[in-house]
Amino acid sequence: MKRTQLLLIAVFFCYYFPLDIRGESNTLYWYVAASISKVAKEAAEKFNAQKKDFNVIVIAGGSGELISQITLSGRGDLFTPASDDFLTIIKDKSMVKRYVKLLEQTPVFGLAKKYKGKKLSFDELINGDYKIALGNPRTMAIALTFLSIEEKMPKEIVRKIREREKGCPLDINQSVSYLEINSVDAALIFDTVARANKLEYVEIPKQYNIDSYAYLAVLKSESSEKNTKEFIAFIFKNRQIFDKYGYPLLGDSSQ
C-alpha cells in the first residue's frame, strides 16, 4: 500500500513539475494573487509564444491559498502576493531569495454590473440598503488589509459596513464574479481590478485607506536561476502589457 502511495506521489510531481535532461525544470511556475491574474496570464502567454526551451505557467488564487500550495508542494519559482502582509508571511517561512515591488494597488468598493454608468458616494454606499462582499482575510490580501483600514475608521462606519456584509469570497476573482452576476451590490477589490474588468467603483476616503503593494518574489525553490532572471527581465521590458490593464509597474528587474 505504501509503495503504491509513493508511486502515485512520484507520478504527480513528474507530471506537474517535469524536468529536462539537464536536471533543470523546463517550466517556470509563477504563483500570482488573483487581483493580478488577468495581466499575468497575458504576460505568460506572450512570453511562451516566443520561447522554446522553457515555458511559464501561472497559478492564480488568494495570496494565503497560494502560500499553502507552495509550502505543501515545496516547489515554485516566483510568487506575487498582493500585500506586504502576505510577503511577510512567506518571508518568515524562509522561502524567499529576493523580491522587488511590482505595482501599487488601492482598495476600493467595486460596484455590480447593474450600476454601470452610475456614480455612488462612500456615504451613500454605507448608509444605503446595499449588500457588500468583503472577503476572507486568511486567503485574500485585500481582506487582510481591510482589517487595518477598519482600525482607522470610526466604529459607526465599521458597524454599518459589517451589517451589510454578504458572502465571503476566497479571492478577488470570486468577488468580481459576484459583481458580474449582481449577487452583491459592492465588493472590496483593488482599483486596478475594477479598471481591468470595467467596473464602476467607490473610493474609500483617503484618511482611512491604505495602499497595497504587489511584489515579485523569487522563491528559494526556483528550479533555474537563469530562467527566472530571463522571465523577470521580460516582464519589465514589456510594461505595455501591464499598462493596458491599468497596472503601472514600479521599479525594474535590476532592483
Structure explained in plain terms:
With 255 residues, the chain is an alpha/beta fold. Helices cover 43% and strands 20% of the residues. The protein has helices spanning 2-16, 37-50, 63-73, 84-92, 122-127, 141-152, 155-163, 172-180, 191-196, 225-237, 239-244, and strands at 27-33, 55-61, 78-80, 96-105, 107-111, 132-133, 186-190, 201-203, 212-219. Helix 2 links the parallel strand 1 and strand 2. The longest helix has 15 residues, at 2-16. It is globular and about 55 Å long. Residues 4-23 have low confidence and may be disordered.
Q: How many β-strand runs?
A: 9
Count of DSSP-assigned helices: 11
Number of domains: 2
Radius of gyration: 20 Å
Relevant CATH superfamily of the largest domain: Periplasmic binding protein-like II
Label the overall shape.
globular
Structure classification: alpha/beta
Strand content: 15-25%
Q: Could you give the order of strands across the largest sheet?
A: 2-1-3-9-4
CATH architecture descriptor text of the largest domain: 3-Layer(aba) Sandwich
Characterize this entry briefly.
This protein has 255 residues and is an alpha/beta fold.
Helix-strand blueprint:
Elements: H1 2-16, E1 27-33, H2 37-50, E2 55-61, H3 63-73, E3 78-80, H4 84-92, E4 96-105, E5 107-111, H5 122-127, E6 132-133, H6 141-152, H7 155-163, H8 172-180, E7 186-190, H9 191-196, E8 201-203, E9 212-219, H10 225-237, H11 239-244
Parallel strand pairs: 1-2, 1-3, 6-7
Antiparallel strand pairs: 3-9, 4-9, 5-7, 5-8
Any key phrases for this structure?
alpha/beta; 255 residues; D-Maltodextrin-Binding Protein, domain 2; four-stranded mixed β-sheet; five-stranded mixed β-sheet; single chain
